[in-house]
Amino acid sequence: MVYSVRIKTFTLVVLWPVLLTGHAGCVQDQAPGDGVAICTEEIVNGEPNPFFANRPMYSVNERPLMDSRDYNRLLQESGDAYVPWQSLDRDNNNTNMVVTEWTQTGSATCAGTVTVCGFSEGAQENWLITQHINTVLPGGGGERLRKVTVQFEGTLNGCDISRQCRQSFELYKWETSAIDRNGANNTNNYVRVGRVSPDVTSGVMSFVDSHDIELGTTGGFYLGVVDLSTCVTLTRILVLYYVCPEETSELISRPEAIESQSLEGSPSVEGECVENSSTESGANPILICGPRGQWQVIKPCLCNPGYQLDSSQDKCSG
């Protein structure tokens, strides 16, 4: 199996002011679940939950907002009281023999996949719409995320270009502060934010593809994934943002901070020098939380006279 990994950035945006969070958890009141705790609870009915134990791990730099692996079902089936996502067939060429819209495939618990492959029936426009994704940070300050990253994992399923099959799909967003199913199902509300074009050649190819999406200040959005005649299976969709973690490194005690990118420069973050160290000016050290949550030191700390850097690189010893 061949894997293709790509990272695309459609926009560079500033997170201003620098947003700090004092916890390692997710943003509060995020995308609602499907009423089944089996995917998200460590303990179910007093017993350890094996499905929780097998869920994907996040790095110290990642803060998930929505993960398709958190749901037992993604799309509606007969008898389902609630499902988080919607599938809309805007070309209206489903037939009794062929279903061309997005459908859920696979029965693995907490690992549902969605598939679309209707290009042989003519031009397609099939929308996969997620639930509302909240982007208001916790803490009561009302700060909004101004950028999120969407990660896709999946396979392009033997797309035959000669039969008008495209090796890409489109991304759209509708920004709104509240859950609104009727509005979410109105595709006229959405604006295009990019295209996912996995770098594959022929045959069944697996891919991982990441895209940054710029946001306004509304505090939430719906994500639309639009098939315009492709043949793809998505095994995971993850919406997240990145942080630089709280840590002590290179003689600097650093607070947690949100990743920041800006064409005009990144907002700075103040840290604190560890004991027996200081900056040349005596002021606090200055850092930037760079792309994908990587700290960049602008004004470093140095060991004070009479002290030297310990082998751990994190303290000055006399």
TrEMBL record:
A Pfam family assignment: Ephrin_lbd
SUPFAM superfamilies documented for this protein: Galactose-binding domain-like
Region (Disordered): 255-280
Subcellular location(s) per record: Membrane
Residue ranges of every copy of the Eph LBD domain listed in the record: 62-249
InterPro entries on file: Ephrin_rcpt_lig-bd_dom, Ephrin_rcpt_TKs, Galactose-bd-like_sf
Keyword Membrane: yes
MF annotations from Gene Ontology: ATP binding
PROSITE patterns the record matches: EPH_LBD
Keyword 4Fe-4S: no
Entry keyword set: ATP-binding, Membrane, Nucleotide-binding, Receptor, Signal
Protein name: Ephrin type-A receptor 4-B
Species: Geodia barretti (Barrett's horny sponge)
